[in-house]
# Entry
Amino acid sequence: MLLNYMGKDPMQEVELTELGELLPMDLELWGVAGGQPIHSSQKIVDKVKNWVSDSPFSKSISKKIHEGLDKKRILVGFERKGKLRFIWRRFTKRYPFTFPSFSKTKVENTVGYYVRDERTLVVVFDNNVNIVGRAIAELPPVFNHELCHFAFSTNINKALKQLMRPILLPFYKTYLGLLTPKTQNVDDKYLIETIIRLAKAFEPAFRPGIVKSLYNIWEDYVSKVSDDEKFNKTLLGLILLPYAADIIHLKMKKRERNLAKDSQTAFLKTYGSIFGVKGFELWGLGITTPGQEAIFPSEVVAVTNQFRLTPPVINLINSIDMR
Ligand SMILES: [Zn+2]
# Structure
């Protein structure tokens, strides 16, 4: 999932007159994914198509995005319909002191996620989003990110074959090396095996028993790191804690919370040091779910490609079967 907020000025050249056309009026139920109804309109879909074709971020995969939108494998719209709510929220945002109960203004944002079980990508605009300004700037990276998950999960063998050497192996090797130098002595083949096991177990669809099999996969790897059982247990904790902290909201003691933080920092450092992913590009990741990398190898591909699609990833996305 990518909760994207690029703290930058949105594209200013966009005509304000377009706003009227895009207010969430005349919305209809466009689709449901992961139990979440999405309200949209043909006008919004057509506008989104134009934006992604024009954007330098997503131009190279815009035909695939168009196809996904037409076949409703990609749903773009609002959580709720009704302009009253829209105007109300805009108003309370501008005059927060008049309505104390609404003074907690949310950051305008666009949320994207991929529902593996239903092979559907969803992009939801916040109901108070200034759609003409911010959404244009945010949409392409959100599409890029989520389409990496989509492409990976529907074509695992091709993804692993093409991305193991350039992206996946160097990422996990660096990350584990930051946790402990002992991993440098472990043969790469065990890490490659671990990445393949993770991808095959978790990328296609959500399955029950996820915690147990996740534990087993990483435990097998960690047992290759050293003979010190106690040390290996701590390492296993480091790898799995950020996941536990953010995804299953495990209650943790202070020591565990600190370990989880160290591990999250290692993930972020790895993105910066080997792929040059800048701080602001990771901002969304930092506040949502760092640690997904311990489960889904596609997260690494998504983060490193959200602002700069690389040729093998463009190729992979363009071969997605949108049926
Ligand atoms: Zn993601």
User: Anything to note?
Assistant: The two ends are 22 Å apart (CA to CA). Strands lie at 2-4, 28-33, 36-40, 74-78, 110-115, 120-125. The chain has two domains: 2-154, 156-318.
